[in-house]
Amino acid sequence: GLIDAWLPNGSPYSGNPLLGPVPVTLAPGGSQSQYLTRTVPAIAPLGEYLLRVKVGNPPADLLDQDFFHFRVVP
Predict the structure, then answer these.
(1) Do the strands 2-6 and 47-57 form a parallel or antiparallel pair, or are they unpaired?
(2) Where are the beta strands (DSSP E) in 1-74?
(3) Sign of the Cα pseudo-torsion (36, 42, 44, 47, in order)
(4) Strand order from edge to edge, sheet including 61-72
(5) pTM of the predicted model, to two decimals?
(6) Please, what is the Cα angle at 58 between 52 and 62, to 5 degrees?
(7) Alpha-carbon gap, residue 48 to 73, rounded angstroms
(8) How far is the C-alpha of 5 from the C-alpha of 7, rounded, in Å?
(9) Would you call the peptide bond into 59 cis, given omega within 30 degrees of 0 as the criterion?
(10) In angstroms, rounded to a whole number, what is the distance separating the alpha carbons of residues 48 and 13?
(11) Is the pLDDT of residue 65 over 70?
């Protein structure tokens, strides 16, 4: 798996990837959950951010991906 972030201005975060790549082995029909916390720096620009989580071996073998939006507010 792999986690990337995008800034409110649409640019990719310079510290990408936030996590990964991390090898994950699943049995057919299997699933896995992961609890992840990240600290948002006090100097982070205000606005809406995007996190993208990819599963597989991107970019060639991308099995699935999902997106998570969050806001940094004063």
Answers:
(1) antiparallel
(2) 2-6, 47-57, 61-72
(3) positive
(4) 2-6, 47-57, 61-72
(5) 0.78
(6) 80
(7) 9
(8) 7
(9) yes
(10) 13
(11) yes
Pick from 50, 20, 23: nearest CA to 36: 20
Token pair, residue 31, equals 């699933």
Q: Tell which residue, 51, 46, 49, 48, has the closest CA to residue 34.
A: 51
Here the tokens at position 48 are 């809406």
Write out pLDDT tens, residues 13-57: 999 999 888 887 888 998 888 888 888 889 999 999 999 998 887
The pair of structure tokens assigned to 33 is 């959950």
54: amino acid identity, one letter: K
Q: Which amino acid is at 32?
A: Q
- Residue whose entry in the numeric block shows the structure tokens 């699943």: 26
